[in-house]
Amino acid sequence: MNKPLAGIRVLDLSRILAGPWCTQHLADMGADVIKVEHPERGDDTRGWGPPYLDGTQDAAYYLSANRGKRSIAVDIAQMEGQALIRELVSSCDVVLENFKVGGLKRYGLDYESLKEVKPDLIYCSITGFGQNGPYSKRAGYDFLLQGMGGLMDITGRPDGEPGAEPMKVGVAVVDLFTGMYAATSILSALLGRNQTGEGAWIDIALMDVQVSMLANQAMNYLTSGQSPKRMGNSHPNIVPYQAFATADGHIILAVGNDGQFQRFCEVAGVPLLASDERFATNRSRVQNRKLLVPQLERLLAEKPSAYWLEALEREGVPCGPINTIEQVFEDPQVQFRGMKMQLSHAEAGSVDLVSNPIRFNDQSLNADAPPPGLGEHTQAVLSELFPDRGDYLEKLKKQGVIR
Fold first, then answer.
1. Strand partners, 32
2. What residues form DSSP beta bridges with 320?
3. pLDDT tens by residue, 304-336
4. Which residues contact 238 (CB under 8 A, 6 or more apart)?
5. Active site annotation includes 175
6. Residue 1 has pLDDT above 80, yes or no
7. What CATH number does domain 9-213+336-398 carry, 3.40.50.280, 1.10.1780.10, 3.40.50.10540, 3.40.1620.10?
């Protein structure tokens, strides 16, 4: 498949999750992503286990975000390493980094310095709080930003219920959203460069991303002046749209309009409930949530999950189970769509990975190469880009500048 980013080269100076998530997406789209790592430590997430891939020292966490890249091990704290990176930049289209504000300036690897090397460079900086402002010097981690950016205050059981407290989401959603915002920004900058010939410096902050992804909840506040509260599995603007206990477990009922509510009531054997003026429209159901939900809880608790899922699905009422992750990968729809993929791996033999969800012309876009070992491609990449510098590269290797 002729991938859309074939011919684009990205120098990836990032680590952990937001930056690598971005560059993995670019690699899946066909970009040549060169991942720069410290010769000894590598990306921090290589050690964020267990679990680790059998036969390797690489944690599952690292494997989740580094498919399709080529790893070179360069010590940028040494002057020779800095000089090598600057030379590499001249043959790259994009540089992505997630160092603290000003952290790369002392190495001469900041945007202004590298723009002198390549004037049309697209340079993306990911930080916790952005390049300016009172918090700009702070380090930012997903968990902190979920709290500071309001997400945890609207996630978890409501005040007054057992176990009520602010709760983080089960995956690092701020990092993941930031990675995708970075990817779309880089793609936009590449398109802009094709039109104007000019590069760009992209400033993306986890805090900004978290605030932006509050979406309708942010607008609920801005419109009403009232901060939304934690509602557990309930929805602030739609009823019934939550998890319900059944006779043998739980299901999700996601009624998005009045017609669906009418069909639900027919399946549940209470058709008159849908014509009750207190519940006939979503607006009235939201207003009378405390009257309606207990009635629905009693109804749904009378029969097992399988009964409800089959009967409601048959009538076109949106519903579903609450799966474990094991059950997710056993789901026939997930299997049909190929969301679990396998690549060959030099040390482990093979590695199971999660597919990129995007399809182009009915084909998955996934890089062909597994997450690389630390410094696995140092020699190959540098020899390819500097074919007449063999003695120089061997000298750098002996000095510990590269691995």
1. 9
2. 252
3. 999 999 999 999 999 999 999 999 999 999 999
4. 255, 256, 282, 286
5. yes
6. no
7. 3.40.50.10540
What percent of the chain lies above the pLDDT cut of 90?
100
DSSP 279-346: TSSHHHHHHTHHHHHHHHHHHHTTS-HHHHHHHHHHTT--EEE---HHHHHH-HHHHHTT-EEEEEET
CB atoms within 10 A of CB 376: 22
Q: What is the domain partition of the chain in residue ranges?
A: 9-213+336-398, 241-326
pLDDT in tens, 59-79: 999 999 999 999 999 999 999
Tokens standing for residue 291: 């009257």
Give the other-Cβ count within 10 Å of 127's Cβ: 27
The Cα–Cα gap between 316 and 280 comes to: 18
At 241-253, the pLDDT tens digits run 999 999 999 999 9
Closest by Cα among 342, 365, 385 to 63:
342
Catalytic residue among 175, 203, 208, 248: 175
